[in-house]
Amino acid sequence: MSETQSKIAQAELAAIRLILCDIDGCLNAGFVSPLHLVTLARIAAQVTRLRAHGVTVTLCTGRPTGYAQAIAQALGITTQMVVENGAALLDPINGQVITLAADADRAALSRFAERLMRDPHWAGRLSQETGKQACLSLNSPEISHRPSSQIRKLMTELRAVPGAEQFDWAHSTTAIDITPKGINKASGAAQLLDELKLDWSAVAAIGDSQNDLPVLERAALGLCPNNAEASVRERATLTSPKPYAEGVEYLLGLFEEEHTDD
Q1: Measured between alpha carbons, how far is 21 from 153 in angstroms, rounded to an integer?
Q2: In this structure, what are the phi and psi dihedrals at residue 221, rounded to the nearest 5 degrees?
Q3: Higher confidence at residue 174 or residue 26?
Q4: Terminal CA-to-CA distance of the chain, rounded, Å?
Q5: What pLDDT shows up at residue 12?
Q6: 254 within 8 A of 5, measured Cβ to Cβ
Q7: Sheet of strand 97-99: strand arrangement
Q8: How far is Cα 209 from Cα 224, in angstroms, rounded to an integer?
Q9: Which helix H or strand E contains 250, and what residues bound it?
Q10: 108 sits in which H/E element
Q11: pLDDT averaged over the chain?
């Protein structure tokens, strides 16, 4: 057993059966950053090897279904995943989407988005990520790759908009995510665990931002690449010495080492 493994032996690496991985800030370096295809190819090989040992790797992301399905295809992921910041589950094999938000909540979110995009104070400063049905994600030069303190300040201003109080708010390094009350990555992951007949004691999660914390804090192992926000690194069980996709590759390697040692 490696020195790194020994630091998290109490969480029993061998008991993990599901690894949930974020996309932005983990498998890529941000919203419009180029994908590191060589590293992703190595991760795809890890996904296949871990599956052979009974460990499933899937995604837990704020991204819409189309983008998540493309990343899943690149990595050879075949298990249902959490998309739209917990507002939906996606089966990458048949493209079936299970929306976890009520129709009335989705309609209220759509009306709020329309009002926000018409507001002269915000209309020219924000863009809305397309392809989402139950989550409103706002992008902006004021958000992307800015310090988390600056993103939180902008989010606080937005939460003062009339009607904002009826939703839950979270942010990554590239977007502010708005979902119906009670919906976040952890609620989506809980639904996925029900589908897979697993509990949190069998889960490891990899994330980098504030919107990943609900999952990282509930999982048996909360892991992050070393580019993660300070609040995430403080609460993670282990931080990889490497950033982004190379950080994910390193973390998945810990699970491979565990099974190699068996």
Answers
A1: 27
A2: -130, 120
A3: 26
A4: 10
A5: 76
A6: yes
A7: 81-83, 88-90, 97-99
A8: 9
A9: helix 244-261
A10: helix 103-118
A11: 93
Residues counted in the chain: 262
Distance of CA 184 to CAs 11, 69, 89, 138, 159, Å?
24, 19, 12, 16, 17
88 and 106 Cβ atoms separated by less than 8 Å:
no
Predicted local confidence at residue 260, as pLDDT: 73
Whole-number Cα distances in Å, 159 to 85, 169, 170, 187: 18, 8, 11, 22
The reported pLDDT for the residue numbered 5 is 44
Map out the domains of the chain with their CATH numbers.
3-99+183-261 (3.40.50.1000), 103-180 (3.30.1360)
Q: How confident is the model at residue 135 (pLDDT cuts 50, 70, 90)?
A: very high
Taking the mean position of all CA atoms in its chain, how far away is CA 232?
A: 13
Which whole number is the average pLDDT over 65-80? 97
Question: Which helix H or strand E contains 51, and what residues bound it?
Answer: helix 37-52
Q: In DSSP terms, which residues pair with 203 in a beta bridge?
A: 18
Residue 118 has φ and ψ, to the nearest 5°, of -90, -15
Identify the bridge partners of residue 28 per DSSP, sorted by sequence position: 24
Residue with structure tokens 């498998």? 27
Q: In which residue are the tokens 């493994």 written? A: 5
